[in-house]
Amino acid sequence: MEHSAYGIPVSWFLTVGAMLFCIGLFGMMVRRSAIGMLLSIELMLNAANINLVAFGSYLKMPVIAGQIFAIFVITLAAAEAAVGLAIVINIYRSEQHIDADKMSAMKL
Amino acid sequence: MHVLGFDITGYQVAFVILAGMTVGSAAMVVLMPNILRAALFLGLTLFCIAGLYALMNAPFLAAVQVMIYVGAITTMFILAIFLSHRVMKIGFSQAIYNPLLAAGAAGLMFLFLFLTVVNSVWIKNAVAAGPASSGQDVPAVAQALLQPYVFPFELASLVLLAVLIGAVVIAKEDTDGA
């Protein structure tokens, strides 16, 4: 199979993916608002997508499955964001805040 | 192009600019106290990631990324923020909880991932020097999506329908206390 000579090794893309994942992890831990946590989840899903596409394209026998899986991840991310934001709006309507630390309605 | 004895291609310059903007704006997403600005920076991050997809010879995914992520998901986040945040002006210490501990944990995780990427023998053996120059374009994606992956593809549309109904039911205002 033929490969383009761009001079960019795959480890560069994987490093960007790792950075993005860790930034998302950091945001997940520090954010108080539930919407901020959902934003961080999107960052982590995109880090996974970068890895999928990079391996799909850089393998010596390239596979299209990397891009297909990334498309499914994007679909499910859209679904997750829609349901998550609906839940956030519902919680805001009943409790007037979206602070994840103070959400205790389901605690025993 | 020769700079300080190194051979630098235009693609490498493009990669460094795109990757720097991606990581920089992603950091702004998690550090901005104002959640609306954080959502706008998420849009910038996702746009730069579309550029990275283009550098990996994945044009369809780059277009999908701009249309769905930048166009739809970011818009949805902004609308949800408008609907749920009464006070936009809060300080850094109110929005961000215990940043140093979290930075240490995330930094350890990055160190682990980076050392794995750099030292992996499997990656060195299985991977070529550049992205594939054929077989990653739009017709290839279409054929894969409608031949081997047609069942998950149809299942994804079912999931989206279920999510559409579910999100409407969850976010709907209770009219008669039901």
Salient structural properties:
heterodimer; A: 108 residues; mainly alpha; Helix Hairpins; 3 helices; 71% helix; elongated; B: 178 residues; Four Helix Bundle (Hemerythrin (Met), subunit A); two-stranded antiparallel ribbon; 8 helices; 2 strands; 74% helix
Fold topology:
The complex is a heterodimer of chains A (108) and B (178).
Chain A: H1 10-30, H2 34-58, H3 65-95
Helix pairs in contact in A: 1-2, 2-3
Chain B: E1 2-3, E2 6-7, H1 10-31, H2 35-55, H3 59-84, H4 92-95, H5 99-119, H6 121-126, H7 138-146, H8 150-171
Antiparallel strand pairs in B: 1-2
Helix pairs in contact in B: 1-2, 2-3
Question: In short, what is this structure?
Answer:
Chain A has 108 residues and is mainly α.
What average pLDDT do the residues of chain B reach? 88
Q: Report the sheet with the most strands of chain B, covering strand number, pairing sense and barrel closure.
A: 2 strands, antiparallel
Helix segment count of chain B?
Answer: 8
Spell the H/E element sequence of chain B. Answer: EEHHHHHHHH
- Low-pLDDT windows of residues of chain B: none
The CATH topology of chain A is: Helix Hairpins
Q: Can you tell me the CATH architecture of chain B?
A: Up-down Bundle
Portion in strands of chain B: under 5%
Q: How many DSSP helices of chain A?
A: 3
Structural class by secondary-structure content of chain B = mainly alpha
Characterize the biggest β-sheet of chain A. none
Ends apart, CA distance between termini of chain B = 69 Å
Q: What's the Cα radius of gyration of chain A?
A: 18 Å
How far apart the termini of chain A lie comes to 59 Å
Question: How is the quaternary structure best described?
Answer: heterodimer
Overall shape of chain B: globular
Q: Determine and state the CATH class of chain A.
A: Mainly Alpha
